From TrEMBL:
The active site is at Y141 (proton acceptor), K178 (proton acceptor). NADP(+) binds at F10, I11, D31, N32, K38, R53, L73, G74, A75, R76, T77, K145, V170, K178. Its cofactor is NADP(+). PANTHER family: ADP-L-GLYCERO-D-MANNO-HEPTOSE-6-EPIMERASE, NUCLEOSIDE-DIPHOSPHATE-SUGAR EPIMERASE. Substrate binds at N169, R180, H187, F201, R202, S203, H204, R215, Y280. Catalyzes the interconversion between ADP-D-glycero-beta-D-manno-heptose and ADP-L-glycero-beta-D-manno-heptose via an epimerization at carbon 6 of the heptose. GO terms for biological process: ADP-L-glycero-beta-D-manno-heptose biosynthetic process; carbohydrate metabolic process. Pathway: Nucleotide-sugar biosynthesis; ADP-L-glycero-beta-D-manno-heptose biosynthesis; ADP-L-glycero-beta-D-manno-heptose from D-glycero-beta-D-manno-heptose 7-phosphate: step 4/4. This is ADP-L-glycero-D-manno-heptose-6-epimerase. It is an enzyme of class 5 (isomerase). It comes from Adhaeribacter rhizoryzae. The keyword Iron-sulfur does not apply.
Length: 321
């Protein structure tokens, strides 16, 4: 059996689909299944058992002998939430329980970290584990992810294989439930489809023109391929960036979304909301050498390819992955 926590969420549900495609059907799906808006993400997928996230530690204690691998992707991911207690409970302490169980039962583990750990990027975006203790995230979500990365590296007891994945700006199918926290691609598609125009955040940094803010956008299909590689590889434990390795502007994203929909470009700019303005990232770009060095050779979707696939194959026909 393969466990996926956060299985009803964006990346988790896409990973379940990818596992099913390779005939891994004994999936233990762990999540908060009371959130109705996430239900469509798992429809039609092959799942052996659904386990509530708060009941999972006890379930694992009873069933660990049957578990082959754990993908711990479940987390509170809202960067606009500023109550550290929420992140401490769901992202830090819960992840410690999963880690310790994997140590005790010798289960390999892949868990979700985040590029939010890099903060404003003053130390760059290199997944060198020596700088993790020096990073300064910009919000409690980033703090919780970095705190767990630091804790994991300090442990003398570790699963025989483990990997922490610093996800950059992931976009793609099955993120439809995420509301404000959905990718800019999804927001752009909805605005363009409904209004024929798109609003982007104005730059409040003199070093960047409006729309020239840059992010490392990675298509979710690349993310799940990396997860599959690590499940089969089970060597070279550590913390890895998961991005495309290429920063692109929000204008690049906008132009490609308009083109994929078949509409004329019509862009306005609005002020970045005050609650996120001070901690807004203007540039992110993952260094991907570390993952390549351990043998991951597949090419990444370009922003053009990813948006085209997302819009044409999923958003326009209203499909799930």
């Amino acid at each position: 059996m393969i466990v996926v926590t956060g299985a009803a969420g964006f990346i988790g549900s896409c990973l379940v689909s990818r596992l099913n495609a390779d005939n891994f059907n004994d999936i233990i799906a762990v999540d908060n299944f009371t959130v109705a808006r996430k239900e469509p993400n798992l429809q039609g997928k092959k799942v052996k058992l659904y386990v509530d996230r708060m009941e999972f530690p006890e379930w694992l204690d009873k069933n660990y002998e049957e578990v082959e691998f754990i993908f711990h992707l479940g987390a509170r991911t809202d960067t606009t939430e500023f109550d550290p207690a929420i992140f401490n409970l769901l992202n830090l302490e819960y992840s410690k329980k999963v880690w310790l169980a994997c140590c005790e039962y010798q289960i390999p583990l892949v868990y979700a970290s985040s590029a939010a750990t890099y903060g404003a990027g003053k130390l760059g975006y290199d997944d060198d584990e020596n700088i993790i203790s020096l990073l300064n995230p910009l919000n409690p979500y980033g703090d919780s992810k970095n705190d767990f990365d630091k804790w994991a590296l300090q442990q003398t007891a570790k699963p025989f294989f483990w990997a922490g994945l610093k996800f950059f700006n992931v976009y793609g199918p099955n993120e439809y439930h995420k509301g404000r926290m959905a990718s800019v691609v999804l927001h752009a598609f909805r605005q363009i489809s409904e209004r024929g125009r798109l609003e982007l955040f104005r730059s409040h940094n003199p070093e960047y023109a409006d729309g020239e803010q840059k992010r490392d956008f990675i298509y979710v299909k690349d993310v799940v391929e990396i997860c599959m590689f690590l499940m089969h590889h089970r060597q070279n434990s550590g913390i890895y960036n998961v991005g495309s390795g290429q920063a692109r502007t929000f204008l690049d994203l906008a132009f490609n979304t308009f083109e994929a929909i078949g509409r004329e470009v019509n862009i306005d700019f609005k002020d970045t909301p005050s609650d996120i303005r001070e901690n807004y990232q203007y540039f992110t770009q993952a260094t991907m050498d570390k993952l390549r060095r351990i043998g991951y050779t597949k090419p990444f979707y370009s922003l053009e390819e990813g948006i085209q696939d997302y819009v044409q194959e999923y958003l326009i026909p209203n499909k799930y992955y």
